Structures are given as C-alpha cells and as structure tokens.
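User: Can you fold this complex?
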Amino acid sequence: MESTTLAHHLLLAALVFCAGLTGVLVRRNLLVTYMCLELMLAATMLALVAFSRFNGTMDGAVLVFFVITVAAAEVAVGLALIVALFRRTGAVGSDRLDSLADR
Amino acid sequence: MPDPLFVFIAALTLGACCLLVASRNPVTSAMGMILALVGIAAEFFLLDAYFLGVLQVLVYAGAVMVLFLFIIMLLDVQPPGGAYPWKRALAGGAAFLLLSAAAFALLAPEGSLAKAAGPTPPELAANPESYATAAKAFGRSLYTKYMLPLQMAGLLLLLALVGVVTLAKAPKSAD
Amino acid sequence: MDAHLLHWILLLPLGSAAACGLLLRRRGAAAGILSIATAFAVAGLALAVLAGLAPGQTLAWQAEIGRLGGVPIRVGYLLDGHAALMLFVVTFVGAWIHLFSWGYMRDDGARGRFFGGLSLFMFAILGIVLADGLLMTFAFWELVGFCSYLLISHYFDTDFAPPAANKAFIANRVGDLGFILGIAMCLATYGAADFASLKAAAAAKPAPALLGFLLLCGFIGKSAQFPLHVWLTDAMAGPTPVSALIHAATMVAAGVFLMARVDFLLAPEVLQLCLWSGAAMAALAGLCALAQTDIKKSLAYSTLAHLGVMGAALGLGRADLALLHMAMHAFFKATLFLGAGSVIHGCHHGQDMLRMGGLASRMRLTFAAFLAATLSNCALPFLAGWYSKDAILEAAHGSSIGAFALLALAAVATCLYSARMIRLVFLGEARSEEARAAHESPWTMTLPLVVLGLGYSIIAGTYLGLPAAAVHVLPKPMAFHLGAASAVGLAALLLGLGALRFYGRSSGDALRDAAPGAYRALERRWMDDAYGWWIDRVQQPAIEVLAFLDLALVNGLAGKVLAGGIPALLGAASRRLFHAGSVRANAAWFTAGAALIAALLLGAL
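Assistant: Here's the predicted assembly.
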C-alpha cells in the first residue's frame, strides 16, 4: 500500500473518466450515454476520495456522499426523461434528437 | 511500483469500462458498468473509505443500476443489427488514447509517474475532525458542518421524486 | 397565569384555517361551523385570560425558536393593557361577525374558502395583538395584509374585486416598505426590536425623527391614512362581513394599536405630522361620505374619517384616547357595516342607497341596531362614540385650535352623512321593487346586530361589559360638562336633524340637486387621479425608456448582433459545426471547451 501514491489513484480516476467521456462522445444509445456519464461521475468521486484520504480530512469524502445523493436523484430524473422521450419518438438513439439542427 | 491489489483492481475497472463503452448490447454495457462501479468501490476500500465503498455498492451498483436494467427491459432496447462498426470503435479508441494522454500530461507534468510520486497517506488519526473511516465520523460531519447541504440534498431528492412523477404521467392528450 | 392559554388563542384560528383551507374547501357548512365555533372559543378563552389578569398586570412570554447565523430568532407575547383592550375587541367583535357571516354567506358557493380566510385573518390579527416585538409584529402584519387581499378578492370572477384587492395590497406594500426600514433602523440604532428593550433604550436615548416617520409609514398604509387612504373605499368590493371585520373594526385599527405600542419612539415632529394629516383626513373624508350612493362606500369614508380622528389623537400624544376611540369605533362601525350587510341581504344584494328607502318598517331589528350605532357614530352624549370623540375634541381644543377646527368639521360631517344615510335607507318611501320586497334577516344576522349595536354601541363608553384588565389604560369615563367639544357636538347633532329634513325634500340626493358642483367635487377621487397622473405621465415614460434600452441593448445588440451575427459571418461552416443538432457534437464541443479552460487554469497553455 505504501508504494501506491496519490498519483496512481488520480491516474486511474483520469482513465476511467476518459473512458466515460469517450463513451459519451461516440455512443448513440442514450441509455449507454447516460451510463457513461455516471461513470465519469464515479471517476471524479474516486479522485475526491483519494484527495481526501491523502489530505487527512473528511471534507472530500463527505462531498462524495453528496455526489452519490445528487447522482441518485439525477439518475431518476434522467431515466424518466429518457422514458418520456421514448414515448414521444419511439427510440432511444441520440441521433434522432436533431430538431435544433440548423438546416 | 504500486500495490498488486491496486493494479488488479485498476485493471478490472478499466476492463469493465471498456466493456461498457464498446459493447453494442445495452445489457452487456450495464453489466460492465456494474463491474466498473464495484471496482471503484473496491478502490474506496483501499483508500480506507469503507462507508463510502458500502454506499457505492448499495446505491450505485445496487439501486441505480437496477433502475437502468429495468428501463432497458421496459423500453425493450435491441442491439442494432449489422456488422460491428469497427471504424467508429477505432475512432473511439483513438479518442480515448488522446484524452488519456492529455490527462496524463496534465497530471504528471514531468512526464514520469514515478517522479510525481506525491505524498504518502498520513496515519489514520483518532481525531474525528481529520480523516476517519467510521460511519460515525461521517454522521458527525453531516449533522454539524454539512447540515445545510444535507437538508438541501433531502429537498433535492423530494423535488426529483415530484419531477419523476410528473414526467412519468402519461400525457392526457396528444397535442 | 401563564402563557398557556395564549398559545391556544393564537393557534386555534390557525388550525381552523388549515382545516377549512385544506380539508373543507368543498364543504362550506362544515367550514363555517368550525370557523364560527373557533371564533367563539377564542373569544371565550380571551375573556378567561382577561378575567384572570389584574388591572395593570402584564403577561409576557418569550421563546427562542431558532438561530440564523448566530442571531437568535425569538417569538413572544406581551399582553399589557393596550393589548388586552385590543384582544377583547378583536376576539369579541370578530366572533359576532363570524356568526353574522353564516347568514350573509348562506348562498355563496365558496364558503370554505371564505371561512378559511376569516380564520386565517383571526390568527394574523391576534399575532399582531400578542406580539412582543416589531419583527413578530411585522410577520403577522404582512399576513394580515395577505388575508385582506384574499378576502377582498373573494368574488374574484367579478371585474371590480381583483383590482380592488390589488390596490389594497400594493398601497400596503408602499407603507410596509417604510415600516420594514423602520424596523431595520430600530435594530441599527438600539440593537433590539422587542418593545420592552426598545422602551428602555428610548428612555436613555430619544429616537430620531426619521425612525418615528418610518414606523409611521406602516401605520399610514395599514390604517389607510392620507395619502395611502385610496385603497380602503375600494376594499368594499369584498363581502360585507369582511368589510366589517377587517376594513372597519380590526385590521385598520391595528395601525393605531401599533403606534400606541411604539409611541415612545415617535418624535414631536412625527406627532405633528400625524396630527395634521389625521385631522385633515377626518374632515375631508367625512364630507366625501356625503357624495357616495353606495352604502358601503359611504361607510368606508366614514371609517376613513374616524381613522383620521384616531391619527389626530395619536398626534396629540394621547395614545390612550386613540385606543379608546379605536375600541368604540370597532363596536359601532362593525354594527353599521353589519346593518348595511343586513340591508344588502334584504334587498337582494343591492347596494345603492338611492334605490332603498322605507326599510325601517320592514327590517325593524336592523333599523334599531343601525340607528343606535349611527347615534353612537354621531357622538350622541352618553353613547359609546361620545366618550371617545368628545375627549379627543377636548384634547385638541387644549393643544391646537387649527386641528380642533378640522375635527369639529369632521364631527359636523359625521352627523350630516349619518342623517343622510338613515333618511335614504330607512325612512321615506321605498324607491325600488327590491326595497319594497325587503325582508328581515335570519337570527344569525340579527343577533350580532343586537349584541354589538343595541348592546355595545350604547353601553361600551361607560366601560360596562369591557373586561377590567382592558380598561385600566383608558382615561376615566367623562361626565357631561359643557365645554368647547360638547358645544360642537350638540351643534353637529342639530345640523344632523336639519339634514334629516333636507334630504327628505328630494327623491334623489338632495345635495346633488341643490349644489351639483359641490357634489361632484366631493365625489371625485382626487388622490386616485393624482396617482393616475403620476403613473401615466411620470412612471410610464420612464419605463418606456427602460423598455427601449432593453430592446436595443439586450435584445438587439447582445441577442441579434452578437449571438446571430458571428455565426452569420462564419457562414455555412458554422452551421455544420455549431448547429449540427446532434447531441454528440454538442458534447464534443463542450468537452473541448472544458479542456481548454482546464488547460488555461493549469497553466499548460
């Protein structure tokens, strides 16, 4: 454990974040896009906990607690939106949502 | 060289992430997501954040992902037919590598992880004000220093509940 | 005696309001019974408290309900002599008006809402009565204003009630702005806002005139003093019991009560202002009442006149006389309004006095009560109104001859419009079908009339039937002696008798026939015209300049030129890049932007 430094944890967090970001950028299925968003959030939580641990204070960890709470609320609303969208358009592909396109 | 356990968990988490991003089947993606979240929870354990780890598994890998799977089944999302879009996958992989390189550059300006070793974790203190692992320390923080955010979070959950109920109501008449 | 009963007095109406508003909105009868029962229970409790209170004794209670950034938030009661009198008037008159409402609102479809509003109002006004500090007073002060708004707009589907409610609310806002600034100044000057601390502090360091003036603003708004008096006559758009309870007996008197509570903060300049504006309004409003054909509007002007008299008494430094007049006025003016309500009810909701007439024989009980209250209003010796009004006239005579002349004019005007009202409504021939078909109201409406009118309008001035704890702050009941005040009073009464004959001459309004110019001048609402001029000629152009700036700068420059112009310059490329309409493209741009900001922050660029 002593040889695992803060930088290792942060690197892992960054890689997970980038994986999630890549998913958001390339995936078309809104549900998967949304999962990837949650993955990015989880990555930032990991970074927060690591900072908190290496700083020796509770603040980051408590913030993670709130992030989990807010994320839970956000997931509920987001999924409800996706369901409502599905009802309207009959699909969960993000490429169908182009009514704002300037044509 | 980092702890082998850390390396194993990190590899597991990243593999699960790849599964999540690369799979065409949403159910497989969800499984990858669960695995990744469990991996991050294990990371929390490594960082002595036992309470958060448990919370992560319960709330995220448990409740939230069940919700996702439920919606996937409800909407009956099928994986698209046809050949796997290798071109896009390659573009995605390239984007991932580019982003990771940028992150790595930002994180370790000297370019070497060994050099940017950073501090080692301080000893766990008995003082509840500093970092502690017990749920009790969490509770103390939440109900003293973070009382107002806690109340706001409760309000937010209530609002989310109301919002979901409103959204979930079938529209009375199509306009 | 502890504050236990006071909690019940304050919270019972709140419970009733909540039950009526949340559960009984569609069950008007149940809401009415609950609200009336609550009002009488509160009146009984108040009497019990007052009976247990020795004269001069003060009941205080205080509790800290929370802290905000280290500043304690306290609520508390302070039941001293003034509050005891007000408590009795509010609960006692309020209870009878609740009962009256049962009959008056019998056919109304929204009784649940109405009685809920009445109960909420009782809660609010009792909060003002019991409050031990300016902050708590202000909270309930606002709630009272809100209830008034709610009840004025009871007939919200008419085209006159909502604007009237808005007008009342907005006029009160203007006054309350001064009030809340006054509270802030209190806190800044003395570091406290509860009456006990303020009194002690003001004894050591007299309050600046500005502080008194700011607090006076609250009184001016709530008690409809000049120049914010314009809302009170329009407020008659509400149901008549509301006019009786809120806009005659209690709410408008709350301003007087507040001034009596903080009279130690009023500098001599403020008192002078209060005296002159009050006396002038008393005279003018009394005359304006002569040119109203709507029975309730005429009574509203009469209320304005009496509020002016109370303001003048405050200005004379005689808060005790102002409170005495407030109490007496509450009894007889509530009766007058309830009598008007009974008449309106009998005439199938007609309010035009010129279409009434000859109702004395058809509505005997109503007439008797209305007559008694009118005589009290005219300050017939030994009736309730005489004790307070003559004392105020006497005090004015001793201090300022100009104010005395104005108040004497007000006394004369009172007798004139009272005689006109009696003549037009109750005497002579019936002038319309509705008046011929008028009938006496049910007992729920006549009983309050009898108690308040035949009872309290007559005897209250001798302090009979008032709780001992409430009256010890008031001046001793006067014996009849011939001074300047009583001379004016008797002359006014004789003029009133003359007016009775004068108004008998014509089938319409005799003054309008005799002196149409003077009638129109009195009928015209000068202050409304002045406000209208200000809004049309001053405020509107200023707003149009702002609207133009908004259109030109925000919509035009920022909206059209910047947001629309840059993509237009970039041409078709920008459409494909920025306006692709693809979520993923937007996400990519967002990522790029975030990365750019991160790089800038980290100093990598």
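The first strand of chain C starts at residue 59 and ends at 68. The interface with chain B takes residues 595, 598-599, 602, 604 of chain C (CB under 8 Å).
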